[in-house]
Amino acid sequence: MQIKTMATYAANGETPEILFWVGCAGSFDQRAQKITKAFATILDKTGVQFAILGKEESCTGDPARRAGNEFIFQMMAQNNIQLLNMYGVKKIVTACPHCFNILKNEYPALGGNYEVIHHTTFLQSLIDEGKIKMKEGGTFKGKKITYHDSCYLGRGNGIYEAPRKVLETLDAELVEMKRCRSNGLCCGAGGAQMFKEEEKGTTRINFERGREAVDTGASVIAANCPFCMTMLTDGVKETGKEDEVKVLDIAELIAMNME
Amino acid sequence: MRIVQELLFIIAFGVAVYLFSTKVRQIRRNILLGRDKDLNDHPDLRWKNVLLLAFGQKKMFRNPLVAVLHFFVYAGFIIINLEILEIILDGILGTHRLFVPVLGALYPLLISAFEVLAVLVTLGCAIFLIRRNILKLRRFISKDLNGWPRSDANYILITEIVLMLLFLTMNTADQQMQLRGSEHYIATGHFLVSGNLSAIFSHLSDGTLIAIERTCWWLHILGILAFLNYLPYSKHLHIILAFPNAYYANLEPMGEMENMPAVQREVQLMLQPELAANEPAPESMPKFGAKDVFDLSWKNLLDAYSCTECGRCSAACPANLTGKALSPRKIMMDTRDRVEAVGRNINANKTFTDDGKTLLRDYITEEELRACTTCNACVQECPVSISPLDIILQLRRHLVMEESSAPGEWTGMFSNIENNMAPWKFSMDDRDKWATEMNQ
């Protein structure tokens, strides 16, 4: 596989169909890197012409903005927008709902206008176009999968169906948690909580959500966000069920099961 | 005698309307203490929200059983108030059931419908009292409501039950008097509820019946005028403000955070100094984020006055559910308490005189603000389009940008982003390491 950067395309006077915005978690976090690789593999296998920004990519500024530091957000955002506009980027796909939300909803006010797609929506369109074909009798056939709605994909942007439609192609039994869709319970990482210790309380948010997910009896918890991934993995560990219940990103589930 | 009653009524009515309008003007003034924000775009979408969220109570139907009960109380209370028009006119003119000759056969049908609604309102309020005081639902026993707010809720429900019972008793006495062919009690036809109850008064004398009917009439209308003046001091103000609050509801995706053009401009000048030449000097140092109610938008303050303290926000809040100090409902109650205190200060001193207090710290603590995951569950749940999150984020902006107050880990995260372009301390060179590994 040859993953090219925007700079390489630009040097050849070309523009790729779509930019894969990897995000900081997808780039640096060891667990999230696997999601990044799984999604890149799917893009490659389905013949999508894509590029990454590589070393030129920077944090979108999301955690700084949500923590209250608008200056750092503006610095990151304006630099990113200059770069994206210089490359003439029109379409962006990302596997992180925080990057998705901020690129889609908050960059336009600063002069960054792009069509931004979350990877679960992108996967659904690849499936609808027949570009992703599933293996007969795949790994998850008949198994129970529960889906965790991330806040920034679900409530934040009203995307509830696309990830579920993608999961349906796995021939698994989809079971919902009691708090799902617009009632979904946060994993505890948003609003820059990922980068600090939780405030004093009676329990941790991810323990609460982990327990709820494990209680469905599912053997797989499907996530769509690298931060939810970290939080839910720890939450499942707390219940002592980490051997029976795996937390996997939707891209990983598809990559494992496609022809 | 009749003229005395008419005079008394006109005085009571005039005083009630005067007091209410004075308080309403004060609340309007208080709301406008907030900073300006233009929310007049897309009137079509805004009216749609008024229809769906306010009139239709769409969000309430996330819990259908409670929604139906609440709808009875709401519809009953609004529709029965049509009857108030007749009562007021009767009071001023000294007439009895002025609309009977005008409406004819329609009159008993209307009153019958009002009576059925009155029964439903009574039933609904009784069930709500049971939910609050006997079933003790988590959101109703929360410490947010300790003291006045818990009594406030019960007073409202009890008052509504009493008003409905007065209305039904008045009609029952009236129906019995009609049966006796009393000249003053004009024949209206049969009322569905009170008509079937009138037999219970059959053993009473005419004098007693008239006394009951008149007492109920007076208590009912005086009760309504008193309730009108209770509203602005109570959480029950939502019955009015839910409508404008739905109109001014946020139309953007919930995930979007408000931009700060002042900071945008400053950073732009830093990154592209060539633009600075044409830049007019700023008139004053801009303030970042919100420390007190004056720094919040007027919509945030309208939100605070619209809050009915139902606690759906806090019941869904992941921080609150796991025992953190944060309660979105308390954020709204604190904001209203603070803006009310500021309003009283202005009433006493003509203009606001520094009282050494601010919304931040004297009402809302840093610990509460720091517990928020910005998950939007509170915004999603609110039946009357309130955003506690918007207030939380503005207070956080003040903490970080005006006071450099942030937990140590956040300060580290800020400097990592500034220096390494990522919230963690990784080398920029490793950002595409995963790709290099795949390319091999």
Automatic annotation (TrEMBL), chain A:
Where does the signal sequence lie? none
Transmembrane region(s): none
Q: Which Pfam families match?
A: CCG
Q: Ranges for the Cysteine-rich domain? A: 19-103, 145-232
Ordered alphabetically, the record's keywords are: 4Fe-4S, Iron, Iron-sulfur, Metal-binding, Oxidoreductase
Q: What is this protein called?
A: (Fe-S)-binding protein
What is the scientific name of the source organism?
Answer: Chitinophaga qingshengii
UniProtKB/TrEMBL annotation, chain B:
Tell me which InterPro entries the record gives: 4Fe4S_Fe-S-bd, 4Fe4S_Fe_S_CS, HdrC_iron-sulfur_subunit, Helical_ferredxn, NarG-like_sf
Q: Which residues form the 4Fe-4S ferredoxin-type domain?
A: 298-327, 361-392
What PROSITE patterns would the database entry show?
4FE4S_FER_1, 4FE4S_FER_2
UniProtKB keywords: 4Fe-4S, Iron, Iron-sulfur, Membrane, Metal-binding, Oxidoreductase, Transmembrane, Transmembrane helix
Tell me if Transmembrane is a UniProt keyword of this record.
yes
* Pfam (any one): Fer4_9
Q: Where are the transmembrane segments?
A: 6-22, 65-85, 105-130, 153-173, 185-204, 216-233
- Give the top-rank taxon of the lineage listed in the UniProt record for this protein: Bacteria
Reply yes or no: does the keyword 4Fe-4S apply: yes
Q: What is this protein called?
A: (Fe-S)-binding protein
